[in-house]
Amino acid sequence: MSSNTNLLSRVRKEATRAWAIGWKDIRVYYLSPPTLMFGIMFPFALFFTFTVGRNLSLIEMLPILFSQTVFWAASTVGPVVIPLERRTKTFDRYLSAPMSLVSVILGKSLAGVVFGLLVSVVPLIVGWLFFPFQIANLVLFSLGIFLSCIAFAAMGIMFASVPTESVGNIMMPMNFVRIPLLFISGIFIPIESLPLPGQVVSLFSPLTHTLILIRLGLGISTYPISPLVSVFALLLTSLIFLLLSRQFHEINKRRE
Could you give the CA distance from residue 67 to residue 69 in angstroms, rounded to a whole number? Predict the structure, then answer.
């Protein structure tokens, strides 16, 4: 009983510390120019660039907008915040404080999750106010948004493990991964239009499963994959990214 009590107390303390870190990032960095550019302006610009003139219906365009918004917004906060905090030595103080590295990573990821959720509200409000669309399955739509925010926020934290004080040094390699994902995940090219090897590769992209869940949530027939598979894929991806983030940050900590 005593060991269980101690474990719960430790978990509660670590969760409190993670929330404090996340809330600080929310207050300080959400309105920074890199966050606004890559998290809000860039996905909307990319959306209009690749959808205007393609003769897509509104119901076909909205899942693309939601998926891109979540993808770029959630994965942007960590790669912006962590190098800036390395420059001011704030991140070093986190690592030397009496808290686990897991708490730091979860706190940083939490800021990305909240930012992704808040930004995803923008196209939702625009859609409700100006376009005739409705959510057919609220559970699948909400899972698609929420789980994707977790997965992409964790991805951003993983790339932010690059030991640099420059935001550009993280954004450049990350965009070499993010931009190709747009072309294999059904955003610009339907998955069923890809050759068979491309369809197989697309199943390993978390963005594919984001689009599948959002399309199902909006009542659109999509690639024949069970939503349970997509939910599991996003959860597994989140776990892998978080574990890799912890491992990379541990290596950097030992080198310093």
Answer: 6
